[in-house]
Amino acid sequence: MKVELIKGDITKIQADAIVNAANSSLLGGGGVDGAIHRAGGKQILDECIVIRNKQGKCNTGEAVVTTAGNLPAKYVIHTVGPVWNGDEKECVSLLENCYNNSLKLAESLGVKTIAFPNISTGVYRFPKELAGKIAVETVKNFRSDSIEKIIFVCFDDENEAIYKRLLA
Ligand code: AR6
């Protein structure tokens, strides 16, 4: 499995799946979530509403999939990161679940390439260094038959520097 770093906007990434740092409502928000819904169009929200009506809210650490609408990807995998509350043990475990559950879902869809944003490191205030370590370790420990490439898409300079170092 190859692991890459790209600096930029995840909505522009050509991968089979891109991951969204959503919230439990699945109905959109700011940050990367807002960018994905804006660029992907109404089809994504429509499918999120169908999922909501079926299963209710999406719990922290879990993941669901929709179409990618107008985006170059095939799928958007929506996962809900933990809000950093200082309980390191709990937050770490929930963030690991985000990466593992997104990868499991991707695997079940036969995805070959998947792009992740830096989940929880924006509005949810997860310390970036720790979040980066968890992201890199979790994807490197994931055993997959179908996934060939994982792309970490860093939007801000601080995350880019952290991932550069972690992946060096
Ligand atoms: N492409 C890639 N990464 C991005 C983009 C983009 N277009 N825009 C922002 N980022 P955040 P969270 C980075 O706040 O902390 C939403 O309102 C950003 O630099 O988007 O998981 C949801 O609806 C940061 O490193 O997500 C939830 O309510 C990272 O994406 C809540 O925010 C995550 O920042 C989730 O908070």
From TrEMBL:
EC number annotated for this UniProt entry: 3.1.1.106
SMART domains (alphabetical): A1pp
Entry GO MF terms: O-acetyl-ADP-ribose deacetylase activity
Domain Macro: start-end pairs: 1-168
Record-linked Gene3D superfamilies: Leucine Aminopeptidase, subunit E, domain 1
Stored CDD domains: Macro_OAADPr_deacetylase (cd02908)
InterPro entries named among the record's database cross-references: Macro_dom, Macro_dom-like
Keywords: Hydrolase
Keyword Hydrolase: yes
Record flagged with keyword Coiled coil: no
Superkingdom per UniProt: Bacteria
Family matches, as Pfam families: Macro (PF01661)
The protein, known as: O-acetyl-ADP-ribose deacetylase (Regulator of RNase III)
Organism annotation: Chryseobacterium camelliae
